[in-house]
Amino acid sequence: MDSCLRALALASLLCIANGARLLSSNSVFGYKSADGVSLRDEARGFDNFMFVRQWPGSFCSKHACPLISNRGFHFTVHGLWPNYKDGTWPQFCDKDYAFDEDQISDLLNELRSEWPTVYDSYEEFWDHEWSKHGTCALDVFPTEHSYFENILELHRLYDLAAVLGRAGIVPSTETVYRTKDVANAIYNAYGVRPLVHCYEGELSEIWLCLDKE
Ligand code: U2P
Question: How far apart are CA 10 and CA 6, in angstroms?
Answer without folding.
Answer: 8
